[in-house]
């Protein structure tokens, strides 16, 4: 915290990983103080958020709401798809972190996908200002993720990060504190879940929800054969009779189902490498690729990427929080790192 003479109050700066699946907030000197699903429950046909209708409580409502309530995810493919609901969600999270400091307007660092448009960037800035933020800094997710993964990005040495989030996969080669070459694709963890949902429809005529698809991915999903094959009981709605039904699926069939979205991620990595400078490639032979984001936890995905690229691949420590931890470092070094960020023009 620092004293701002313009406000006369102690300001609480924060970094925000505004993710498709989860929003993480970190505070200077405190680390991550909030980690909740990016889900909001509203009155159907309105943007009125119901009581306890943001974050963890709202996610529990997904697919289980009565007719007058809708649980939605206001971000899609890493960008804002519903401006008003995103604003309400940001306001709720910021106020939850601030507690009783209702008169304080913080400065925030928000991580954004490297491939978003100028209009999408402006939507992020406007949502933050509507949530009573004083100054907004935008930092590209690959940079924040690489810092959170403790890669030596400021050195004249190539480092490669692949952040597989919920809505986007960010691939970048970084050197001297900036991105040398990158690719951002809107294929990530949500597409893994969608592939599983579609498989259950086609193969078993069974309709399952997003949360159950995510459970299947976590429990028996894999990108490559890892250990003994497993089975799982899946419950849902029969698409023909409309009645509840269950069936047994195998880890092998789920692995086959996930090949298409995984293949697109591998292609993005290959394309990025193809456009890198030879000297950076020489560094990567030694340092390899670092995986971050929730998608990196899919069993065997590091092996698939290593086989496709011929480079060593490792998974970052606590990959789910790399971007948020990276924004925390930016917060602590705002003045030194401003040149690597974009800021709004109307903040103080």
Descriptive notes:
With 348 residues, this protein is α+β, with helices and mostly antiparallel strands. It has 3 domains: 2-38 and 73-143 and 323-343, Nucleotidyltransferase, domain 5, CATH 3.30.420; 154-187 and 260-318, 2-Layer Sandwich (Nucleotidyltransferase, domain 5); 190-257, Actin, Chain A, domain 4 (Alpha-Beta Complex). It is 36% helix and 29% strand. The chain is built from 12 helices and 21 strands. The protein has helices at residues 56-61, 83-98, 118-130, 141-148, 189-204, 210-220, 251-257, 259-274, 278-287, 301-309, 322-332, 334-337; strands spanning 2-4, 9-11, 14-18, 22-27, 31-37, 40-43, 49-54, 69-72, 75-76, 79-80, 107-112, 135-140, 159-164, 169-175, 178-185, 206-207, 231-238, 244-250, 289-292, 313-315, 342-343. A 6-stranded mixed β-sheet has the order 5-4-3-11-12-21, with helices on both faces. A 5-stranded mixed β-sheet has the order 15-14-13-19-20, sandwiched between helices. The chain has a 3-stranded antiparallel β-sheet with strand order 7-6-8. A hairpin with a 3-residue loop joins β3 and β4 (22-27). α2 packs across α3, α4 (141-148) packs across α11 (322-332) and α8 (259-274) packs across α10. The longest helix is centred in the first third of the chain and has 16 residues, at 83-98. It is flat and about 60 Å long. The protein starts with a strand and ends in a 5-residue tail after the last strand. 45% of the residues are buried. Mean pLDDT is 88; it is low at 1-10.
């Amino acid at each position: 915290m620092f004293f701002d003479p313009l406000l006369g109050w102690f300001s609480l700066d924060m970094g925000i990983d505004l993710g498709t699946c989860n929003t993480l907030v970190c505070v200077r000197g405190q680390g991550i103080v909030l980690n909740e699903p990016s889900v909001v429950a509203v009155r159907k046909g309105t943007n009125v958020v119901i009581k306890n209708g943001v974050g963890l409580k709202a996610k529990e409502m997904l697919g289980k709401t009565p007719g007058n309530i809708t649980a939605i995810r206001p971000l899609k493919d890493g960008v804002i798809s519903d401006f008003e609901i995103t604003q309400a969600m940001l306001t709720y999270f910021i106020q939850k972190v601030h507690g009783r400091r209702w008169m304080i307007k913080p400065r925030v660092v928000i991580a954004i996908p490297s491939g978003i448009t100028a209009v999408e960037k402006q939507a992020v800035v406007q949502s933050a200002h509507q949530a009573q933020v004083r100054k907004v800094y935008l930092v590209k997710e690959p940079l924040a993720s690489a810092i959170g993964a403790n890669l030596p990005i400021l050195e004249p040495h190539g480092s490669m990060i692949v952040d597989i989030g919920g809505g986007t996969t960010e691939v970048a080669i970084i050197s001297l504190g900036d991105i040398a070459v990158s690719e951002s694709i809107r294929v990530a963890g949500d597409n893994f879940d969608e592939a599983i949902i579609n498989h259950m429809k086609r193969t078993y005529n069974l309709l399952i929800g997003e949360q159950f698809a995510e459970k299947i991915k976590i429990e028996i999903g894999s990108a490559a054969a890892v250990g003994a094959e497993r089975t799982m009981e899946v419950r849902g709605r029969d698409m023909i009779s409309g009645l509840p039904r269950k069936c047994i699926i195998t880890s092998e069939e789920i692995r086959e189902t996930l090949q298409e979205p995984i293949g697109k991620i591998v292609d993005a990595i290959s394309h990025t490498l193809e456009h890198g400078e030879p000297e950076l490639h020489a560094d990567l032979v030694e340092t390899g690729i670092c995986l971050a984001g929730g998608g990196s936890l899919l069993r065997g995905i590091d092996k698939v990427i290593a086989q496709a690229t011929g480079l060593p691949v490792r998974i970052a420590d606590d990959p789910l929080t790399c971007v948020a931890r990276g924004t925390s470092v930016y917060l602590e070094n705002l003045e030194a790192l401003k040149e690597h960020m974009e800021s709004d023009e109307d903040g103080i």
